[in-house]
Write a structure and sequence with these properties.
about 0% strand, about 150 residues, mainly alpha
Length: about 150
């Protein structure tokens, strides 16, 4: 059942996100608006579009949530595998299950480490400049003649 629903949800989400579906929905709304004068802008005329859009929105919320949940788990699994197979710290595997407070603490720790790395890098650059070893930091420029 899960596999059938997953295929169905993916297919519907793909169709719903297509330009043709968008144009069809715009055309339907235009046709509804044009029909307004013929129905005297009655309550039934208004109820038709309200009911239709409410039902479609209600069902699409669950289908889209299902596909996003599955995509999120797949992405997290890929990231966990990259972390596990690299020199990265394994403590980051599964952090999506932490509480907000635990995530905030971990984020602050990462920011502090990044600031420390930046300070160290700047000190190193300053020392290289002082010794006359560093060329100007220019990225994405063509090498000078004779280099390369």
């Amino acid at each position: 059942m899960d596999q059938i629903f997953a295929r169905f949800a993916n297919r519907i989400a793909h169709i719903a996100g297509s330009p043709i579906t968008f144009l069809a929905c715009v055309s339907l709304v235009i046709a509804w608006a044009v029909a307004g004068p013929f129905f005297g802008f009655s309550e039934t005329w208004q109820l038709l579009i309200n009911t239709g859009t409410t039902i479609v929105t209600f069902l699409m919320v669950f289908l889209i949530q299902n596909t996003q949940n599955r995509d999120g788990v797949a992405l997290q699994t890929k990231l966990d595998e990259l972390i596990r197979s690299s020199d990265a710290q394994d403590e980051f595997i599964g952090i999506e299950k932490l509480t907000d407070q635990e995530l905030t603490i971990l984020h602050e720790r990462c920011e502090a480490a990044a600031r420390k790395s930046h300070v160290t890098l700047e000190r190193t650059r300053a020392e290289r400049r002082r010794r006359g070893h560093e060329q100007p930091a220019r990225r994405h420029e063509a090498p000078e003649a004779g280099q390369g």
